[in-house]
Amino acid sequence: MLENESAEPPHPTKDVTHHVGYLLKRTQAALRGAMDKVLREHGLTVPQYATLELLALHPGMSNADLARATFVTRQSGNVVLRALQEAGLITRPATADHGRARPAHLTEEGNARLTAVQAAVYAIEQRMVEAIPAQRLAVLLADLDRMATALEE
């Protein structure tokens, strides 16, 4: 492509603020801001909260699995796990039984902290999804999943 040629947008609008990617990022930023505010009151960050949620559903996940699931690097995931462990919210063995993975588990305090904050976080998501007609939610979720899959290929 020549330097002075401009690419055609993937849909009719020329205003970047109406592009799918821009609107997805705007939504993500608004969600993150709302979650940050609520979680701060409970002494948690978004990655820490996500880690607690995942460990409640899948006890024993490794740092690598948690990092992938919470969209952070393994190094950042390890920082998150160390902070949760120091706060007494999770436990991990000092050494791995085999390989390098040290499975993490919620402590009683971790479960209590998660329970204390879930209603506030779920209320944020409820506010977000109430902005669209209920009968369109399943379609939106399927479309978002297809878009993510298309970019992962």
TrEMBL record:
One of its GO terms (molecular function) is DNA-binding transcription factor activity. Residues 17-149 form the HTH marR-type domain. PROSITE patterns: HTH_MARR_2. Pfam families: MarR_2. It comes from the Bacteria. GO terms for biological process: response to stress. SMART domains: HTH_MARR. InterPro entries: HTH_MarR-typ (IPR000835), MarR/SlyA-like (IPR039422), WH-like_DNA-bd_sf (IPR036388), WH_DNA-bd_sf (IPR036390). PANTHER family: HTH-TYPE TRANSCRIPTIONAL REPRESSOR YETL, TRANSCRIPTIONAL REGULATOR, MARR FAMILY. This is MarR family transcriptional regulator. It comes from Streptomyces tubercidicus.
